[in-house]
Amino acid sequence: MAPELLHDTRRSGEPLNLFMETCNDVLMHYLLPNSKTYFVLLILALADRAYEIHQITHTLYTWSKAPRIGMTHRLCRPCDR
Q: What residue ranges do the domains of the chain occupy?
């Protein structure tokens, strides 16, 4: 089924818009997906995306706390080192 193929071929970092729209279209056209298609794949897709976002935010947080030797940012004071 289409949602299963979309889940299997989705690249890391891609938004879930197409997957969610496809699942909603299936429901709007009165096609009843089996429990694996809608619930399991939907939960897996959302969990995958949540993990990707967690990785990105963790990387940004770690980057923001790292010391910047000799580097300045136009909004920050020059480094004292």
A: 2-65
